[in-house]
Design goal:
The chain is mainly alpha-helical. It has helices at residues 3-30, 35-43, 50-57, 61-73, 95-116, 122-136; strands spanning 48-49, 77-82, 85-93. The protein has one domain: Arc Repressor Mutant, subunit A (Orthogonal Bundle).
């Protein structure tokens, strides 16, 4: 891929991400969540250390603590100690958080299908998904 093609690719990718972000913001508002709270809710697909979330988001642990505090107050997430190492704080979704996360993913998929993939064949959608998964597999902090 030459430089011009790479620039064009990133412009398209950023447009895709911005459109997706607007969907996340709108969905989060339905649950009285800030954009970052909604983003965190999406990222917590299974119990994980808070430090892992901080690493994925690229922010200080104190920022994650504030986000988790607010999600805990709203009954979306709970905190616990890691078995065998109580220094490590684990986070996981409560039923309300799982329900909201599922609704987010469903609504995002629907919006993606309606707007972003409207001109794609089923084969092209499958190919794009496979290529994007392949593209991020070696990236730092990717969900492997």
């Amino acid at each position: 891929m030459n430089r011009e093609q790479l620039v064009s690719f990133y412009q398209s990718l950023i447009s895709f991400m911005v459109l997706s972000k607007h969907q996340v913001i709108a969905l989060g508002a339905q649950y009285d969540l800030t954009p970052m709270q909604a983003h965190v809710l999406y990222l917590v697909d299974q119990p994980q250390p808070m430090s892992h979330l901080s690493s994925i988001l690229g922010c200080d642990a104190s920022n994650v603590t504030g986000i988790i505090d607010s999600l805990e107050r709203k009954d979306f997430i709970y905190r616990t100690e890691k078995p065998g190492d109580r220094r490590v704080k684990m986070i996981a979704l409560r039923p309300k958080g799982k329900e909201a996360r599922e609704a987010f993913l469903e609504a995002l998929a629907e919006a993606c299908e309606k707007y972003m993939f409207a001109n794609f064949t089923d084969t092209e959608k499958e190919q794009l998904s496979a290529l994007l998964n392949k593209a991020v597999i070696n990236c730092p902090n990717s969900k492997k």
